[in-house]
Design brief:
The chain is built from 33 helices and four strands. With 731 residues, it is mostly helical. The protein folds into three domains: 316 residues, no CATH class; 116 residues, no CATH class; 96 residues, Serine Threonine Protein Phosphatase 5, Tetratricopeptide repeat, CATH 1.25.40.10. The chain has a four-stranded mixed sheet, with helices on both faces. Helix 4 packs across helix 14 and helix 6 runs parallel beside helix 9.
Amino acid sequence: MFSLTPHGNFEKWGVRLFFFIILLYFSVTKISCFDVWWHLATGKWIISHKSIPKADPFSYTFFGKTWIDSMWLFQVIIYFIYELFSFSGLIIFKTFILILSFILLFILVSYLNISFLEMYVLLFIVLFSSSGRFFVRPHIFSFLFLSLFWLFLIKFEKSGNFKYLILICAVFPLWVNLHGSFVVGIILISLFLMEELLLNLNVQVADLIKNRNLNYLFFCLIAVSVLSLLNPYGLKLIKFVLFTHKGEESLRYINEWRSFDVISFVLFFFTKNLFYKLLFWISFALVIFNSVICIKNKRLNFIPWIIWFFALAYLSVKHARFIALFSFGVAPMVAMLLEENRTHLERFSKKCSLFLLILIFAFLFKNFTSPLAFYNFGFGVNNRIYPVDNANFIKSNSLPSNLYNIYGWGGYLIWKLYPEYKVFIDGRTPSLYNDNFYWIYRMADSASEPVWEKLLAKYNIHTVIIKSRKLAEFLIKKYHFNLLNIDDISYVLSRESKIKPLKFWKPLLEGDIVDYAKNNKNKMEEIIKELYGIRANSPHSVKVLVMLGRIYLDAKSQPKEALKLFKEALNLDPYSPDIYFNIGLCYQKLGKSQEAINYYLKSLKYNPRHRKALLALIYKYFDLGDYKRTVKYFKKLTKFYGDLRKADVYYKAGVSYLRLYDYKRSCDYLSRAWWLKYNSPSLYVYLGDCNYALGNYKKAKHFYEKAYKLNPANKFILQRIEKIKKLIGEK
């Protein structure tokens, strides 16, 4: 058997520590999902009301409608943790559950007869493919319990010890009340029972009845089926879990419920999904190979694992949210099938594992060398994706209800604004909001006039918090809403409010407030005052600081004031290429060339395609006479953006190539500058120079003569013309 087993315990623990560090890197991330908020709010509601909700308390559109909260226990747990340890406690809790899940998976694959290399390659593949679902959400318990069930069932299968099945029954009620994925546990037990039956097909009925393993598995299946009823909703919960999420129309528009692109299964993109696809094909190949071997040996015990693989594969392809469940579900099966077919697969497994190991290290290298590697790493909340300031603005100013909100922010607004405000919609589609209502929401969000007429009449909406500029402008013009405040991702509008609306709403919505200020200098101070008012209402807003900075830089020509504002914005968003670029412009206007270059380069670090930064570096390095770097960034600019319409950029590139003795390219780019009507005598001089160097004397003479007409005082040009005449025999 092939193995890259380390020579001692120190090396083994080193590999384990390395895996643990990588696991922490993917697990310790800021809260950045939308549903965690209504889970927290529900936990708070359960504790304060000392009951589990049977009807919706959070929306005014579906208030009082039947709601089966299948995750109530998770919600209570995370609210207690939040109360004690805030958001950092939630991240630690999530990380603990994930670590425990991988420890169980590690124990399981260690228990099976696979090599050290195979074990860690498999663990890393599961880690990468499932890490996109490492949120503070109840589905993380499916990873834990699925790994636990696999471990207990494998140990029972090998030892026949009934205590493992008792342990399954003991923990099963917890899974039932934490997440609806408990049905997967029932299916897994059923498949182990089926495998045992298929292995004993030729046994007499009397002997079959006496088969202890078969009896134990059968009674375990009956027990967990009965225990699944130990929930606040009884059979209704089972029906809800099995039949609520059937791929309705609304699911096509919700990211986690969207289908995985089947065509991409044969395409190579170096992302996390690559490892999901690898696990898919490895599992598929092993299932088929095992089936062939079993058929040759006249055994049918391969059928359960065909069912298991294709069931989980279907779920993961049908809805992207099940990719992580697929990973944790099939990884133990892969290890089990590797063990069962060890003699047939040893050589192939060695080569495959080494190839996968190279991919794993390449992926880690790519991740850790990215400038955004630690963007979401750490504790707390990623406030950049939530309407933090505008939620506070609504509450502190007691804006009138009812409140219209976009789908993704519903949960966050429940957490921030309930019970003063109920929401229009939140992330409980389709478990609460039906297909038809989600269609109404989509029409409303796309500014459908007939839909809005009916919404306003039916729900008496007075305040909206949205992200669509188009919808905001529609509501202002058509239904006389007032724009009251903006933050980086949202607009707040209201029909009835004593708060003074924003006067310059149109340029603010359309993003041309800087140009508007430049063209309306008599209103500039008024615009600045309004922006500072927004800044007071939206202290987390980078957008407002940048707008103020650009006005001070471009309209008022006060780079020092602009620099202060941009650096304040940088403290709020240290990963923004635009802010680095703007700081570079400030330093450039202050005459500090090296500082300007440094910030332009930082802009490219976070966005290698930043057009303005590339242009700025071309201009700057050309002015400094650094023609190698001028050419370097010109190449990047043309690589990313193809044909340019800037004559001066082609001119600078042509001159730079001339200085670097690349006369052919110099001629090409200088001629493009000419085609774009670059008007300068020096252009003709340089065209003459590069053609002269290439031996195109007649062309050189032509361009020198054009230059001389524009600048007859230049004796050097006249000397060149005379020299060429002698060379070509002209008088």
